[in-house]
Amino acid sequence: MPLPPSLTPHVVVFATDDLAALLQSHQLPPLHQLLENFSPLGQVITRTTTLVPVTHSSFTLRFSELTQVESACREDEEARAGRTIDWISGRIAKKAAGWVEDLESRNKGEPLKGDTKWWQELKFCLDGDRVPARGEGWNHPVALILATTTLAPNPLQAVANLHTRIADFPQWVDQNLLRYTLIVHPTTRSNLTQDETTALMNATKKQYGLHCHLLSLNLSKPQTPRQLRPSPPELPTLLTPSVNSERGGVSPQTNGLNLNGTSPEVLNLSDEDTVNSTRFIREFVTQSLVPWMERCVMEWNETYSNSRRLPSRLFTSTRRLFGSSTTSSISSTMSPTSPVSANSLPFSNAPQPPSPQRRLAEFATLLGDYKLAVPLWESIRKEGKGGSDILPMILAPSLTLEAHAAYALAPLTTGTALGGKEDVPVGASAQLKALVYASRWEVGVQDILELGGEKWLVWAAGATEEAPFGLLIAQAALMSLRKGFRRVAAMWYVFSANRLEKCGVKPLTMYLLKRAHELYLLPPEKSLSPSFEDAEVKPNHSASFDALLPSIEHSLGRMKYTTGDVAGAVKLFLGLLKGSVVVQGVPGDGDKVLLEDYRLAYEHLISTTSESPPAGDFSLPVSISQASRTRRRFAALHSREGDPVDLNERTQGTLEELEERWRTFWRAAPNNNKERLEKSGSGEVGEKLWVDIVVKNPLDTELTLSDATILVKEIGKGEEGDAIPEGVEIEVVPEISLGSKERRTVSFSICSSRVVSLEVTHFSFKFHSLMPVRESLGIRGRRLNDTVAQQRSVTYASDVYMRIDVKQSGGRLKVRVPRLPSSLGLGELRNLSILVMNTGTTDITELWAVLGESANGGCILSAIYSTERTEHPPSIISSNNCLLPPEPVRIPLDRVHSSASLRPGESFELPLLIQAHQLAPFELATLLVFRQDASTSVFYSCLVEHLIDVEPVVDILVGVRPQQGKDASYLISLEIENVGGASDIQVSNVIAVSPSWVWNSEEKDLYVNTGHLSPYLIAANVEDLSTRNQLPAIPEKQILRRLESIKLLPDGPSKTTSFEYLLQKIDDVLQGRSIEKERPPLIDLHISALHGVRNCMCILVCKTDPTQSKDRQESMDKLADIVQATRRQRLHQSLSTQFPLIPQSDRPHIFPLFTPSDLELVICWSTTTDHPRTGFSVISGLSLGSGASNLKDVVLRAELGLDSEGKTKKTRSMYAETTREREALVSSVRNSTWNHDEDPLVVEVTAAERTEHDFTSKPLVFPVIFNIRNTSSFQSVEFSLSLTPQSGPDQSQHPVPQYIGALAHRGSISPSSTTSIRAKLWIVKPGVYSIEGWSLTSRLARAPPADEGVSPTADSLTSFSQSPDESNKKTIVDSFPEEDVVWGVAWTIDPKYAVEVKAYLDYREKVGGTIGMSPATVFTLLLEQQGYNEESIDVWDIVDGEERIVVPKATVYVGRPDNPSFIGSEPLEALADRIWRSEGPSGRNKDYLYKLAESVRELAPNSVDAYLFALEETVQAFDASRPSSTTPLTTPPSYT
Asked: Which of 1115, 1133, 1135 is nearest to 1123 (CA)?
């Protein structure tokens, strides 16, 4: 790819006055512009340093006038850069209007091809800057053409005068350039003959070298003049003194102007002159410039390579032996024959020309020798002297080019995009350099679009707010658009427009904003199937890009308003009123500014038009009303005094559900005479009803709505609009003022004088008291999927509107909750009374209550004792075992009221109990169904419905594991945390409710009193009740942990009909049989308490005697109701997740509520405040023992396509949908908890932890007992215990001994039974042994053969296997012969230091670790001997083969077992953990242990201390497995 024009050889031209006059007289441009018309050249061949030819398809030259370059070099570089940026900005502002007009007229919405005119102008201006710079050498001249004509009186003298002229460049300009002589011979005007001309050329070559040329021109008029290629515009020069005669005698010439003062537009050269000029340019390039540059590269490269061949180690040695010297630069080591000028660069503070290394890299780049150029630029880059701007144009395309671009721009731009600091501005020269880099990359980087080059342009723009940098971002937007990144392009168009607007370039700003707005409004392209996109139903595509779109629309709106398009401005301003819209340039109260802009524009619009704008022309972007929250309220239904019931969507659903439950119950009632239930939610003639509209101000400023009302339509009538149906009055609210983000409910009363059915269709108002608005109150209908067309496209049913029925008056009850609690604790049981009043005109003798169960988890119970009870044994409750909700309860009016009928105007209180099961708002919903008497054929209803917040009180964590032992019991671990924070929590009891499981420590005197008629909460323990085994109170944010044991019932559970019922129903589902609407069999629930209920376990105490059997039985029933309600709701949630394909209506007839293995725990708690709160927290979903309802046979038959008898089905479905649905159903049954398998066997290994044995006599036979327990309550298990070590890597930290005797044991264990197997270990030496090397395999026992047919699963038994885990049993075996002795070392203390050493030892050994204690504490420890005891012993040694006392009465510090610091015997791992964690003043305890074991091995190799070495090995294992950052446990001095 060719290099950009700014990276091509720069040639300066100096012509005599006669040559300039000659060209001007023939209407030709100056010589440098004339020569540039013959560039670039095609097919120019250059050579690399390895003599490899490189063909340039286009070789470009840049020509400049010498005096102009000299003048520009004298100007300050920073000032010139600033002038350049301002000059380019002025040209852009001047031409922007024409560009936009031409573009809009030609493009007409089509994609723009090629570069925009403003980008071409920017590149053209940058290419015209050919003034040498200090940092780089691209503009430094490589050649100087000295030109004259044969018209001079003495042409040879003229040539001599040209060569005596010295270029007036600053010192920092590289003057190593090629001097070339050009003699123009006008054949029609020159007096020289051909021979004289030839002699002139020969003399010139002889005196000034071969770099010269004689250009013959006849300067005749061409027959068809060709267009003169425009030269890049040049920055206007400052007025400077002309060059005097002493420096050449030539004054600057005009900048390309002809005699008329205008620039020529055509090239007035004949064909012959054109050919001669082209021949001259090619000869100049191929015979002079390129060979000269190649020679420079060869010599510079040789010098550069020689300077780098000497290794740095040689220079280091030289400096060490002979002293250091100043390192020579590359230029000082060049050969004298180098083409570099003789006057080398001085070593001074003056600006220096580009380094020879950089010039070498630039020349190699110009010649196409990239193999040489790339390492040179890399070396320059590493030295921090540039190069990163060139590498992207000569390297192959890769992702690393982006890093080079970022590195090149980092010091040149402002902002933090490339790590710069916003508060540190850069100079104009750096900004101009970044601009040049970006224009070069856009032209010279191959595949710049694929490399993300648009980001490079944005980086180059930085934070500079000048027009050229705005055009950089606009070009980046165009590049992104060509890549298909429309959102990114729109964003950068906005950024570009913002900068151009600040520079005053209005036409281009408007154009770019329009382009950005168009791009944002384009829908996203569908990359997938259109059907898939439609099915996704995604929101508006512009919703995720609101950050930029408001800024675009606001700016466009302002411009349209100023240009007279007021209607367009109103639409844009109105579209911005969405709330919390951030518009760039608008202050923090942006909505206030936007609303004011809209008001001014709309008022101006209506003042300039004769008629008001149609309402359909403008629309709000958001809805003020919230249709889904619209409610209706009827005076006939009351839940609080004075407040009509509001029937929103949630309440309507609750009402319909409770009404359907009543209808289902009444249809099945034996005395049903087909009485109907009058539909609720209707008004009455002549009575007001209310429609509540929830309005919300979406803006951050105050908003006013005027003339607000609702529009209704009579059902069955076709008219629509603002017409109000006959006989209907609707309230109009004059004004509604809404604060910032305020939400308010506005009520509109409706009164009808006739029976009518209405639909509420619209909410009408005037927005900000100006614009009329109508908002629909309809809710989108359901998605239609009935026809093929509806399946292919998204189609919805008609909108659903709120319906209001107005009927004649009938029976009526008024209900309210006088003491409604503001919140409810999770699990709290609360008394509640509903005040019921007859506001009708007739008596009410029959009243029913349909008690709802909260969808968020909760239950509502009647506190009225039932007179119809089923007698059953104490602590046993008979459950209906059904998932169906409880049936409606008839309210005995004679028990809650003074008479059996409720007359008009009379009232009574209905007592209820409520409890929340989940941490979600509790829905108090109860439907009262009533009628006058049994002869009345119509029931009426009244709903009481409230939401109560639920707050946490206790957080309970339960764990279950089989208990080690022979009995079939489990350990239940409880963690109860007080999370309420208001007071301490007193846990009075834990109750187990299960068909099969009871507590081991159960008390028999169990009753739970729930009150009678007027119950009240108790606050503390009753004095005369037992407080035995009282659980401690739990303070705030504290946890109570409890471990209890639970066991099977003494007679053990039998396989009840619940399992058989479940198996049969699941088989019916999988076989495709219809589900019979029958209920699961009844089941008895056993209720057992840990500590009875005497110590504050009761929830409520009634005014009657709580010891009465009827009260106790009623309490038991209420407790069972709470447990069943909790389990019912949680089981519904679980079934919805596990079996989504089973209809919800069929689930209560398939799944029982309880199975024999289920267990529910009830935590009884109360607060200790003055007004205590008491509750039951139910832990549901526990299942103990291996599952008995295994569904493998049923699932396998369904998978094999067999019926219940094991025979192949005759019918199969031909529809793939049916097959897939059936497979999904089978999979859900297979993976459900009802089909869960687990290993039913639990192994307990029993062995002594420590054994002493004398191995000098014989090895040790060590007994081990394996207790294997079957946790399944219903199935026998076959097992096989193998005592042979398994093959594979040894994972144990301790040796595993061999078993002797029988190595395989097999058997069968009946349900809930335990068997013991005795084994023996063979141990031959002391040590620590791990009891591993065994494995247990089990499988469920074979089921008995079926009476009919052959079961396909007779051999499909589930197998399990076990092996020792990481916590396997360990034992320690020590050897203590009677002749054992203690080995050690005794030290002799110098008498001179005996007192000092003795005092130190007493302090360290007796009271060590007392650093930081008070003196009194240390003294107390000395008195109590909290350390080692000081004793005297005789030290023996072997002398001459005999044992003798060598040191009598030596002092020793001994720790005896009776010492208070002795902590006693501990398990090996516990002691090792304590040693590993402990640390004292003398260091870490484990280090002491390691040194002690090492000393024993070194001092007494023959001694054996198995316990010490085992302890060392265990601690070392902790070192390997635990991180070193574990917090040490600092303990007081103690020893074992």
From this structure: 1115
Residues in the chain: 1536
Q: Residue 1406's Cα: distance from chain center in Å?
A: 60
- The C-alpha atoms of residue 392 and residue 444 are separated, in whole angstroms, by 8
3-state secondary structure 386-446: CCCCCHHHHCCCCCHHHHHHHHHHCCCCCCCCCCCCCCCCCCHHHHHHHHHHHHHHHHHCC
Q: Which residue carries 């007739």 as its tokens? A: 842
Is residue 945 part of the annotated active site? The answer reads no
Rounded-to-integer distance, Cα 4 and Cα 445, Å: 9
CB of 1008 within 8 A of CB of 1121? no
pLDDT given at position 291: 94
Radius of gyration of the chain (CA): 51
Strand partners, 1256: none
For tokens 């209890």, what's the residue?
A: 1044
Per DSSP, the three-state class of 696 is strand
Active-site residue, selected from the candidate residues 906, 1405, 1479, 1513 = 1405
Q: Which residue, chain included where needed, has tokens 């060979």? A: 291
Q: pLDDT tens digits, residue range 778-787?
A: 998 888 888 8
pLDDT at 1276 over 80: yes
pLDDT top residue among 1185 and 279: 279
Residue 1043: which H helix or E strand, with range? strand 1039-1048
Alpha-carbon span 1208 to 1220, nearest angstrom:
19
**pLDDT tens digit string along 1146-1196?**
888 888 988 888 899 999 988 888 888 889 899 988 888 765 456 777 888
Three-state secondary structure call for residue 472 = helix
What average pLDDT does this structure show over 419-434?
72
Stretch (H or E) spanning 1084: strand 1083-1089
Cα 495 to the center of its chain, rounded Å: 29
Question: Looking at residue 1416, what is its pLDDT?
Answer: 46
User: Could you tell me which residues are beta bridge partners of residue 964?
Assistant: none
How is residue 1073 written in tokens?
């049989």
User: Please, are residues 338 and 300 in contact by the beta-carbon 8 Å criterion?
Assistant: yes
pLDDT-wise least confident of 905-919, 999-1013, 1087-1101, 1383-1397: 999-1013
Stated as kind and residue range, the H or E segment containing 639 is: strand 631-640
Angstrom distance (rounded) from CA 1398 to CA 1389: 9
Question: What phi, psi does 1487 have (nearest 5°)?
Answer: -65, -40
Round to whole Å and give the CA distance between 781 and 117: 53
**Which of 1000, 1173, 1177 has the alpha carbon at shortest distance from 1096?**
1173
Neighbours of 592 (CB within 10 A): 16
Region 663-677 average pLDDT: 79
- Percent of the chain scored above 70 by pLDDT? 77
CA-to-CA distance for 661 and 657, rounded, in angstroms?
6
Mean pLDDT of 178-185: 92
Task: Tell me which residue of 1237, 987, 1014, 1257 sits closest to 1096, measured CA to CA.
Answer: 987
Using 50, 70 and 90 to split pLDDT, how confident is the model at 1291?
Answer: low
Q: Which residue has the tokens 């000034």?
A: 208
1465 touches 1455 (CB < 8 A): no
Q: In what order do the strands lie in the sheet with 1370-1374?
A: 1250-1252, 1370-1374, 1327-1330
From the list 620, 600, 749, the residue with the least C-alpha distance to 686 is 749
CA distance 154 to 204: 13
Q: Rounded distance, CA 358 to CA 1177, Å? A: 82
Mean pLDDT computed over every residue of the chain: 78
**What is the SS3 assignment for 10?**
strand
CA 942 to centroid of chain Cα atoms: 48
Helix (H) or strand (E) holding 1137: helix 1109-1138
